[in-house]
Amino acid sequence: MTTSTKGNASQRKGVSPAVLVLEDGRVFRGRAYGSVGETFGEAVFSTGMTGYQETLTDPSYDRQIVVATAPQIGNTGWNDEDDESRRIWVSGYVVRDPARVPSSWRATRSLDDELVAQGVVGISGIDTRALTRHLRERGSMRAGVFSGEAIAPDAELLARVQAQPHMKGASLYEEVATQEAYVVPAVGEKRFTVAAIDLGIKGMTPHRMAERGIEVHVLPATATPDDVYAVAPDGVFFSNGPGDPATADGPVALMQAVLERRTPLFGICFGNQILGRALGFGTYKLKYGHRGINQPVQDRTTGKVEVTAHNHGFAVDAPLDKVSETEFGRAEVSHVCLNDDVVEGLQLLDQPAFSVQYHPEAAAGPHDAAYLFDRFVSLMEGQRA
Length: 385
Known about the structure:
The longest helix is centred in the last third of the chain and has 14 residues. Helix 9 packs across helix 10. About 2% of the residues have low confidence. The chain is of the alpha/beta class. Helix 7 links the parallel strand 12 and strand 13.
């Protein structure tokens, strides 16, 4: 939840004091950045050196206060081409040293101005390295950012933070998904039709499929099997999204219906967790998650190590050392994070379905995993043959 005021010019330039309060009582004091007011969410850190515009507009960050580990943010300003969705989704933004003036020729305004325009409360001028170390040791946790008239005694602010809901158990995907179906046409000759279930989809994802001759029908998170098969899909895609996958019973049931029909299936991020649940595996909350564009993942089917883009706080609990028997055939872990052995991908061995936990569309880079869209195309080609 965010409440903000656009404030006067001095407030917009960060002169107003601001306070970040964590649920364990740790307090950081700095200057207001963006809108002046108060906001609450789960404090998480992102290790990306670039791509803050894509991060801020990623629906998977709904109800999260994002801490940028890169020390200087805002150098490239803000433009109208790089948004991944219709708005900024982060609850708040925490930076160390905001750029005074954007220097990119593509910028049409500053990051600060865009945060103000969209009512996003932030804080700057704090030791983000110390904050990141704290979150690594203690785990992601509820937090609040307060500036201007929202500032009160620390004890009062802490009580307000501790009254906020936890991310575990939060059902958020319907909040960020489209309410109406829409179509992203194929680029060039149309080769396939894909029904994409929007659980918080990023704009670059259907674009990457369209580049491969796929007409993408983006459907609401509440889509039924009848809705999916009404578009006569050659394949079905389940997108990224926010919240706890343990709450996503509807998408799990839909995916099971797709698996029963043996339609080629591809899921990313939240979609990977949905596939895990559909196959009978559990999910769990990571201590501080994976967020950034520099996470090493091994594709166990090829042995190749990829540098990948991540944004997830939950993971699938599946065995790394064996093939599992499921209702839909044999399944195995196809990708694993080399930092901590977290499951980063699943695949079925007896039908055309697979998923990864990270983001192969990688709008801000890197592009090591773009081949996964080609793998999806190959599955549809094989099914058609």
